[in-house]
Each structure stands twice: as structure tokens, then as C-alpha cells.
Amino acid sequence: MRNGTSDGIYQIPIPVNNTFRGIDPIHIATGSVAYDTKRNSLWISILAYGMKGELFRYSLGTKTFETFDLPRGLNSPVGLALDDSDNLWVTNAGSSIFYKVDPRNDKITEFVTSTASPRVYGNNNNNYTGNTIENQGNSTASEALNRNVYTLPYWVKSARWLSLV
User: Fold this and answer.
1) What is the DSSP annotation of the chain?
2) Superfamily of segment(s) 14-113
3) Residue 131: is its pLDDT beyond 90?
4) Residues 46-56: pLDDT tens digits?
């Protein structure tokens, strides 16, 4: 590559035709790309939000793709990050779950995030004293919590702290 030019930049056609058969291409998007320096490869998440998700690893040396099958519930993979042990961490924007993918043995481990809490997001109808809720309105704490508040994991910047899980 030369500075100030596009020399050396080329398009990599991602093989989504077989994986996303029957899904209108307008719904298919790239989630994230993570560079694996040890293997000189790119991890790419592709999704049709809420319908289908797929992980690909692209070898920059051989210019070939490897597809990783995902669990049924992982249909919106967005965030990707590699940890120091070469595990790939994947957020699933369509659920309260994130995953650790061990590419050495194809093992996928699921982790569930906590439920949305009025304590975290604030709520004018409730006062918190220790672990108890004093309800000041006519609704319970769970009803009073904004129904559009979720803990859905989306992006992940670094996986260093995740490798401790």
C-alpha cells in the first residue's frame, strides 16, 4: 500500500449466498471485523438482524474463508474481539447473551448478561434502601422500569478482561 492511494486495497466477496439463502439481501449486514495477528486472518460477523447470523474467518495468506456454525439463538452477532488466549468473543445484539468461541476446538460457551434494573437506569417511582425497594407509585418496580431498557450486549472493544471469565 502507498500513502494517499488506494493501491493494495481490494474487495473481499463474503460467501453469504448459501448461508443466507431465502433472506432478502437488503437485510444482510456486516457486524464487525477483528484482526487475528497470530494467524494473519480476519474474523467477520455477518447478520440479518433477528433472522440469521454467521461467523467467518478469512485467511489473508490463502485468501480462503472458513465458516463457523453458531448456536440457534446467536442470530445477531455484532461485536467481535480476540483475547490473549486466541478466543473470539461475540456479542449477540438480539439477546442478553454473549459468546466465547474457541477456534481450536470449535467449542462455544454462552454467557448471559444481567436483567435491566431500575437501580442502574434510574426510576422516579422507587427509592432504594439497601436491597429493598420502596414503591412510591401504583406500579411494581419491574412495571415501572421503562419497558424499552435492555442489557443487550452490542459492541465489545477489548476481550482482555473477558478472558478471566
Assistant:
1) --TTS-TT--------TTTTTTS-GGGEEEEEEEEETTTTEEEEEEEETTTEEEEEEEETTTTEEEEE---TT---EEEEEE-TTSPEEEEETTTTEEEEEETTTTEEEEEEPPPP-HHHH--TTEEEETTEEEE-SSS-HHHHS-TT--------S--TTGGG-
2) TolB, C-terminal domain (2.120.10.30)
3) no
4) 988 888 889 99
